[in-house]
Design goal:
Keywords: Cell membrane, Membrane, Transmembrane, Transmembrane helix. One of its GO terms (molecular function) is transmembrane transporter activity. With 511 residues, the protein is of the alpha+beta class. Helix content is 43%, strand content 16%. The strands form three sheets. Strands 3, 4, 5, 6, 7, 8, 9, 13, 14, 15 and 16 form an eleven-stranded mixed β-sheet that branches. The two termini are 23 Å apart. About 11% of the residues have low confidence.
Length: 511
Amino acid sequence: MRLSDILHLCRQNLWRRKSRTILTVLGVIVGCCSIVMMVSLGEGINEINEQSLKQMGDLTIISVYRQNSYDTDPSTSTDGKLDDKAIESFKQIAGVTGATAQMSLSYSVTMTADNGRYVASYGDIQAIDMTQLENMGYQLTVGTAPTRDGEVLAGQYFAYQFADKFRPESSNMRSQPQDMGDGTYMVCDVNDCEQVPADQLGDDAKPFFDPLTTKITLTIQTGDNASGGSVGMSGFVGALGDSANDSGISGISGSGSGSGSGSGVRGANGSGNTFELKATGLLKQSWNKGSATSTGILMDIAQLKAMIAKADKSAAKTTTYEQALVKVADIKQVADVEQQIKDMGFSTSSYEEIRKQMEEQSRGIQLALGGIGAVSLLVAAIGITNTMVMSVSERTREIGIMKALGCYVRDIRIMFLGEAGFIGLFGGLIGCLVSAAISLVINVVSLGGPSGETVWQAIVGGENVTRISVIPWWLFVFAILFSTLIGLISGFQPANKAVRIPALDAIKNDQ
């Protein structure tokens, strides 16, 4: 028999008992939907976890420290020295796209803007090698990177820490809006809090001044007025150099290589510890790159060193540092790079361990939910087997006639396997379509109701889109192939039973 004839017989035989075939296919649809939806819920949990981690910071950043960071004299440590040479060695590791040490100013500082009208009694001043800014994945919400001495980058919410000294205490500061991750912000005042869309933020939710158009005057408190002490710890990281036994070293914490002499840093008002800074851009907040991306100032390492040297003549030059940042090209390479850095004698921290734990939890949930769905498909498989056994019993005489006319045994087997396979295939296809519709409805409802934007977001997702059900393309392919395979396996025993029936006995059979 030709394949086309076999396929024609399969279609004819399935349609001969419409009700039974439809009910059997319905069982496969339910089983397929159960598996797809259960696994899609697990994928949704995984996507939510990943978005939560992304809100915490860059997942491909590794923070590197000296192992004995509590030791005030790095020269006595047997661990690897975190110096310029070590930073260069990090850059040579396969998969690393950038590396820089990080400095943090541990002196107490005050900042003013707009000729002293706006005042901040504290400040988080950090520095990196600005040549590595792009390689390290720092993002700007507006503006450009610094190109001259005296130019810096301000944190995304830098201006919110300034108070207006011409206003009453109850209204002399603006509250920083909290990004809710769904295109809205939580805005609070002295009375209550309100969640508003990003495009509806009023003037009351904005800072008093624009850091990009207003010069910032930074005053470093040194000597008797310095609160840092001989061993300073900034808001992000404390650090010491090779000459930590000199009390002046307290002004620098965590450092690395940087270009430029810093000669362009200039004092204001005739004071050696006051500096005028111009912000050329606003950084996007990323906590694992440092709190300066949120409310501080980020500048080049050489510039910060020059400021320290000018403000505190007793500050000694440092060549070893407490912290560095390493950027990896792919999140899958983070664990391997982190291990290589540990093998060099350094301590590390990243979100990799947290990500792995959340991934394992998601995988366990997916397996549990997938197992629940598999039970439904197992019931459907039993239904297919029952349908095919009944079909063989009802068509015994037909089988005998086919054999008597010279039909090959393999053709009879292929015919019955084809019928069972078609039941699984049709059930899988319809089941995937139904699952896609259910998933779409769930996501659209969770995103706030039907609209052109929410429907598109429910399908493709997005950076700030939280989907409850996520169906990757491979899940559809797997469900269809698995349903077809279940049909073929379920029809194998009835097909073998059909080919074992003797031709003469089959012809004599009344059915």
